[in-house]
Amino acid sequence: MAPPTRCARWRACGVDDEVAVVYILWLREVKRYLRSRPQVIASLGQPLLYLVVLGFGLGPVFEQAGRGSYLQFVAPGVIGMGILFTSIFSGFGLLWDRQFGFLKETLVAPVPRLQIMVGRTLGGATITMIQGTIVLTVCHVAL
């Protein structure tokens, strides 16, 4: 007798098919991001570069004007910009999936398209939150 499939094991654990679809697509997005070292370095390097160049480079000029720390002023914008760019690149991932045929395979599956959208969206949101948290931590340490 063949061993039970992953889906059959999940049913035994009480997990619905809808949740399994969302989880698998979420996991795919997160794994795809973590396995791409250039994407991780670029997505974290850009906000950190802005913080170093703008935050520490223009900081003394801003303090001479008597307005406080420039790093405190620029950090929320850099975090917001990083979150925005990561969200945009998550949308580009959808275009790549379409280009290479994975999107067509996903849409042909006998699952509601809402679960496909939710899984992909949660994956992108998780990546965005991880990046935002890392940049926020760096800002907090730097202040």
Characterize the structure shown:
The chain has 143 residues and is an all-alpha fold. It has one domain (22-142). The protein is built from seven helices and no strands. The chain has helices at residues 6-13, 17-35, 37-57, 59-64, 70-100, 102-108, 113-142. Helix 3 (37-57) packs parallel to helix 7 (113-142) and helix 5 (70-100) packs antiparallel against helix 7 (113-142). The protein is elongated, with a radius of gyration of 20 Å.
Q: What's the number of helices?
A: 7
Order of helices and strands: HHHHHHH
Strand content: under 5%
The radius of gyration is 20 Å
Instruction: Give the low-confidence spans.
Output: none
Class by helix and strand content?
A: mainly alpha
Tell me the major beta sheet: none
Determine the N-to-C terminus distance. 61 Å
Overall outline: elongated
Task: Please estimate the helix content.
Answer: over 70%
Q: Average pLDDT across residues?
A: 80
For the secondary structure, the number of strands is: 0
Whole-number count of domains = 1
